[in-house]
Amino acid sequence: MTEPVLEVEHLSVDYVVGAGRFQALRDVSVRVERGHVVGIVGETGCGKSTLARAIPRLLPRPPAEVKSGRIRFNGVDLLEVPAWKLPTVRGTGIGMIFQEPLNSLNPAFRVSVQIAEAIHIRKLREAGAATRTSSGGEPFDYSRGPEVSRSEALGHPFAVGGTAAETVVEKQANRRATREEVLEFLRLVRINDPETIVNLYPHELSGGMRQRVMIAMALSARPSLLIADEPTSALDVTIQAQVLTLMKELIDEVHASILFITHDLGVVAEMADEIGVMYAGHLVEYGPVQEIFEHPRHPYTAALLQANPTRYKADGPLSSISGSVPNLSRLPPGCPFHPRCPIARPSCGADPGPSLELVPGATEGPSSHRVACPYSSEVVSPV
Amino acid sequence: MAGGSSEEGPRPAAAPVRPRGAVWLRSLRDGTRGFFRILWSNPLSFIGFLLVVALAVAAFLAVVAPNLVLPYPPNQLSTAYKQPPSATHWFGTDELGRDIFSNVLAALPLDLAIGFAVAGASLIVGGALGLVAGYWDRPGSLGGALSVVIMRVTDIFLSFPSLILALAIAASIGRTVDGVVLAIFASWWPYYTRLARGEVLSVKHQPYVMAARAAGVRDRRIVVRHVLRNVIEPLVVYFTMDVGTVIVVFSTIAFVINNVLPYPSATPEWGVMIEFYENFVSTLWWTVLAPGGAIFVTVLAFSLLGDGLRDILDPRSRRAQAAAGVPTHVPQAGESS
Amino acid sequence: MGRSLFDLAIFIGKRLLYLIPVLFGVVVITFFFTHLAVSDPCSIWFPRSKPATLAACRITFGLNQPLWVQFWDYLSNLLSGNWGTSPQGVPVYSTIATALPATVELVLASLVLMIFIGIPLGVVAASAAGRWGDHLVRIFYLSGWATPTYLGAIIAAILVAPALGLPTSGEYNSFTPPFRQITHMSVVDALLAGNLPWASDAMLHLIMPATVLAFINMGIATRMTRSSMLEVLPLDYINSARMKGLSEFVVLYKHALRNSLISTTTVLGVTAGGLLSGTIVVEEVFAWPGIGSYAFNAITGYNFAGVIAIVIVFAIGVVVGNLIADILYGILDPRVEWR
Question: Residue C64 falls within a domain, yes or no?
Answer without folding.
Answer: no
